[in-house]
Amino acid sequence: MKLTHEEFVKKAIISLRTGDYKGIHSVYSGFNDAFKKYFEGEDPVKVTNQLAEEGKIVLRPAKGGMMIYLPEDAPQKMTKGEDALKKMGL
Predict the structure, then answer these.
(1) Which domain CATH number covers 12?
(2) Conformational region of residue 89, where left means phi above 0, alpha means psi within -120 to 50, and beta covers everything else
(3) In the chain, which residue ranges form alpha helices assigned H by DSSP?
(4) Which residue range forms the structural domain that includes residue 51?
(5) What digits encode the pLDDT tens for the residues 36-81?
(6) What is the pLDDT at residue 90?
(7) CA 42, CA 38: separation in Å to the nearest integer?
(8) Domain tally for the chain?
């Protein structure tokens, strides 16, 4: 039986992450190519955006693609000001 989009994405995140990383890179991990092969040419960007809108996964922009996380593993999103203060140790 074929996995649903959500099952495939969650399985990919768990299976493809390396080391201490909690997420996977959509391109460098091979996720996009694997998705297109498994779902016969469907667009992984469209599907992951939809899953993110539904709160099933979390996307973060990354150089050359997106980082994909399970909601419980996603880094907290900080504002630029909060990030600057953190870097300054304040």
Answers:
(1) 1.10.10
(2) left
(3) 5-16, 31-38, 44-53, 80-88
(4) 5-88
(5) 999 999 999 999 999 999 999 999 999 999 999 999 999 877 677 7
(6) 79
(7) 9
(8) 1
